[in-house]
Design brief:
This protein is an alpha/beta fold and 212 residues long. The chain has six helices and eight strands; from the N terminus they run αβαββββαβαβαβα. This is Phosphoribosyltransferase.
């Protein structure tokens, strides 16, 4: 459905055109959401930062989220997490918290995260099967007092969007297939985004997205 993440980002930016000129804060979920967030922020005349949330992947299937951990330390678990031991989940939560701390040190080493209070906030990800990561990010951000909270995804199934609509003021999605599977199958090019690319995108004021 998309050539790549940049194609998905341009489509979402068009759908979010009503926010142009209102200086939204675009918070991308690393790593795949960051190239998309750069384009959306530049197109809307906004500001880019990251919201650090890490999924808890199922054993043997790490792309399938059974929960997520937010930067504030809060943990959100799906119903399916009951199938796994408390000890295993606790170890995975600890591991993901360490990765979040490491990423914050690397991504924004010389400044604090941008405050969303009073801002129009757009949370961006390339897609979601279960919505667990976005569902962890939105309540965390809501507590910090944004004027409006928007969830923007490249692709997600209908039931995931219905869930996110209870957590955000607006949900925008590029494609909403009934039969889902995984996010990557809806992108012709779904290459991994590196930490170095994320750092470069956050440092660039505009148009600093990778050529792909």
């Amino acid at each position: 459905m998309f050539r790549n993440r940049l194609d998905a980002a341009h489509r979402l930016a068009t759908r979010l055109g009503h926010l142009a000129g209102r200086h939204p804060l675009v918070l991308a979920i690393p790593r795949g959401g960051v190239p998309m967030g750069r384009i959306i922020a530049d197109t809307l005349g906004g500001e880019l930062d990251v919201v650090l949330v890490r999924k808890i992947g199922a054993p043997g299937n790490p792309e399938y989220a059974i929960g997520a951990v937010s930067e504030d330390g809060s943990v959100h678990l799906e119903e399916t997490a009951r199938e796994y031991s408390d000890d295993w989940i606790a170890r995975e939560v600890g591991r993901q918290r360490e990765l979040i701390e490491e990423r914050r040190r690397r991504y924004t080493p010389v400044r604090s995260p941008i405050d969303p209070a009073g801002r129009i906030v757009v949370v961006v990800d390339d897609g979601s099967a279960t919505g667990a990561t976005m569902a962890a990010a939105l309540p965390t951000l809501r507590q910090r007092g944004p004027a409006r909270l928007v969830a923007a995804l490249g692709v997600a199934p209908p039931d995931t969007l219905a869930r996110l609509e209870t957590l955000a003021d607006e949900v925008v999605c590029g494609e909403v297939p009934e039969r889902f599977g995984s996010v990557g199958r809806f992108f012709a090019d779904f290459d991994q985004v590196s930490d170095d690319e994320v750092v470069a995108l956050l440092a660039s004021g505009h148009g600093g997205h990778p050529s792909r």
